[in-house]
Amino acid sequence: MPLFQNATFFISAHHLRDLPPASGIEVAFAGRSNAGKSSALNTLANHNRLAFVSKQPGRTQLINFFTLGNDRHLVDLPGYGYAKVPEAMRAHWQNVLARYLSERSSLGGLVLVMDSRHPLTPLDRQMLD
Question: Alpha carbon of 107 to those of 22, 39, 40, 100: distances in Å?
Fold first, then answer.
């Protein structure tokens, strides 16, 4: 898809205050830790190293924005679920992600990436709702 092949890294954010101004349109990729969100972005962009991919769950710990130009972005969100991170970090990300998903005015779409080898969890169902 030529549109996505122009994707380039734009910015990473740890807190909501670090996000770029909410303008244009964003499509975010969400899912459990290690479900394949970063891999899906790389495949769409036909680029092996646009988004960092790891076999270790929980490696994406920032909200990563990739620009497509013309104020359009793809957003790689940190995974939720079984990542082995300190409880304080898990609580921080639950809050940041919940607020990003519910309050971000430029969020125009959400791709929920699921691993078909694992059944839906209560967190997955919450995301679907």
Answer: 8, 21, 18, 8
- Classify 126 as helix, strand or coil: helix
CATH number at residue 78: 3.40.50.300
In DSSP terms, which residues pair with 75 in a beta bridge? 28, 65
Encoded amino acid at 68, one letter? L
Percentages helix, strand, coil for the chain (3-state, rounded to 5) are 30, 25, 45
**Total domains present in the chain:** 1
CA proximity to 80, closest of 129, 121, 19: 121
Q: What is the pLDDT of residue 47?
A: 79
Angle at 109 between CA 6 and CA 36, to 5 degrees: 70
Profile the chain (129 residues) by mean pLDDT over runs of 10 residues: 79 93 94 85 83 59 90 90 73 88 96 88 83
Q: Report the alpha-carbon distance of residue 38 to residue 59 in Å, rounded.
A: 10
The helix/strand/coil state of 1 is coil
Which residue in 59, 37, 41, 62 sits closest to 50, CA to CA?
41
Note the residue count of the chain.
129
